[in-house]
Amino acid sequence: MIEREIIMAQRTGAMKLSKLREMMAAVPVGGTKGKGIDALIVTMQDQHESEYLRDRDKRIRFISGFSGSSATAVITPSKALFWTSGRYYIQALDQLDPAEEWILMKEGLLDTPTKETWLLNNLSPKSIVGTDPNLICNSEWEYLSSTLNSGGHSIVPLSENLIDKVWGDEQPTDETYIINSHPIQFSGKSAGEKVQLTREAMESVGATILVITALDDIAYLLNLRGSDIPCNPVFFAYVILTLEELHLFINASKLSEAAQQQLVAEKVNPVYHPYKDIYKVLNQIASSCTEKDKIWLSSNSSYAIHRECEKAKKHVAMLPVCFMKAVKNQVEIDGMKSSHTRDSVALVKYFAWLEDKIKSGEYITEISGAAQLEKFRSEQDHYIGLSFPTISSVGAHGAIIHYIPTSATDVQITDKEVYLCDSGAQYLDGTTDVTRTMHFGEPSNFEKETFTRVFKGQYQLSTAIFPNKMKGCLLDTLARSHLWKVGLNYLHGTGHGVGSYLCVHEIVSGISWQLYPNDPGVQAGMFLSNEPGYYEDEKFGIRLENVELVVKANTPYNYLGQDYLTFETMTLVPIQTKMLDVSLLTEDEIKYLNDYHAKCYKTLAPFLQGPKNAQALQWLKKETTQLTSR
């Protein structure tokens, strides 16, 4: 064992890249052994387009050292390039291994070429690019193929994943976890009803077969939950739905007895197949399709899945399950409200505890603080676990937008620096995601100004009234305008969808300067985050995040009979008024904050009665004291 650990430690990033390049040169292309590929694209996906990955699917992390959740690598015989968004610039510069070889390509900046543009400008004539067809969505494959072909190059699907070959025996193995039922008291609608609605949607577009590959779509449709991916209550499976049958590709031994019974009780009787048989069965179904048949696929499904359907007519669009999942039913809405209230109680307890410990001089770190917050959450009803690893960040760490403390980076939380805590939990009745930024001493004037401008942006978005189905990208400016006025900005989206005891990032509709390709528009019943921020590299980070429910607005007019919408805030954690420069606030903003704090106190105080909650109740009362203008 000791010898193996020494060998693993010796496998530096440079050694991994060297071995990978040897394998790239030996890839048989067009039946010619050893012809090789001129570039390899490595995506950060599993076979189901999941945002968060189990350990065995973290190929980007293995080859580059980067531990974030969004990146693409392009490796050639002489270069290693790494594309990631503004959320991860600082983290990537710190983690890429070897630092002298990896070139960071900062997505979102005007002078950063896309990977397609870079390949066109840097590849030798008639180059061959390879990638794993299971780990790239079909829409991206088609765009890559078209772009590369226009430059005289080509892209080929690799029969073996080269990163896995380099990884070898050290690659983590599959884990088997039990799949549980998600009863109708939390789901609000039976699996049978959802299947029937999906079939009706299929018939409306003339589709006779529908293929579901996204894990949260499958968990939602079948009212089942698992734990195959940390912090995400999903399980590995595929579904092929016809107008008569539901084919479920899964390790059936993972289904609990309650899960099996619930499927039958909710009028779903799956035809079970081994998980690995998806490609074989899909090919058989596509090959037997008649002229009347049409297969409905998501553009986000892998190229490998689409390739098996080449012999049939295809309808490529957002799946109806995806939209059903985004617009919550009344039971899910009530559950989300309840779970956010309980979660807010846990956060109030944590911040009260933390402030007391800091004032008394106790040594509390980013990690021990996050552990205490998890303990407070675990005491709440229906708690399952975290919805993502807690971002507990002090000072300069707060500028690393998705910073996760480790034993190597852990520092003390003090009253000398800004503390940013972004965290969330999974409950049987909902999923939470909340960020608060605080200073337990005296913030600087600049920290107060930027915090205030972030708050003003959050207020402006939260109180917005807009037409039904407005695209989220058109709302994004509202959260940024007060930062833009003084030449400041942030390099991440403003809001994402939130699941109901599902994935914390539910990518259907969102609020961002970037377009969501299949955005159906913001609609009543959706839950979206509202999280503007500001980040000063190597100094501090500020972010305020609430989860908002989209509701109908009461307007005196309804132009052309169209409904208008607004937001109702679910998160009920006080915003630290010490961090505000009140001179920058309008009377409307002050009233909004006072009303919000009054609601926080009224809602949470009944949960904080008794001697053991005295500290939290006192802190809540202090932090919700009404603010006056100066």
Write a structural description.
- The chain is of the alpha+beta class.
- The chain has 3 domains: 2-170, Creatine Amidinohydrolase, Chain A, domain 1; 180-324, Creatine Amidinohydrolase, Chain A, domain 1, CATH 3.40.350; 330-623, Creatinase/methionine aminopeptidase superfamily (Creatine Amidinohydrolase).
- Helix content is 35%, strand content 18%.
- The protein has a 6-stranded mixed beta sheet with strand order 4-3-2-1-5-6, with helices on both faces. It has a 6-stranded mixed beta sheet with strand order 12-11-10-8-13-14, with helices on both faces. Strands 21-28-27-24 form a 4-stranded antiparallel beta sheet.
- β13, α13 (303-307) and β14 (314-316) form a beta-alpha-beta unit.
- α15 packs across α20 (614-623) and α17 packs antiparallel against α18.
- The longest helix has 30 residues, at 330-359.
- The protein starts with a helix and ends in a 7-residue tail after the last helix.
- 47% of the residues are buried.
- The model is unreliable at 1-10 (pLDDT under 50).
Radius of gyration, whole Å: 25 Å
Helix content: 25-40%
How many domain regions?
3
- What would the principal axes of the Cα set say about the shape? globular
CATH structural architecture of the largest domain: Alpha-Beta Complex
Given the structure, what is the number of helices? 20
Compact description:
This protein is α+β, with helices and mostly antiparallel strands.
Please name the defining characteristics of this protein.
20 helices, six-stranded mixed β-sheet, 630 residues, Creatine Amidinohydrolase, Chain A, domain 1, alpha+beta, 35% helix, Creatine Amidinohydrolase
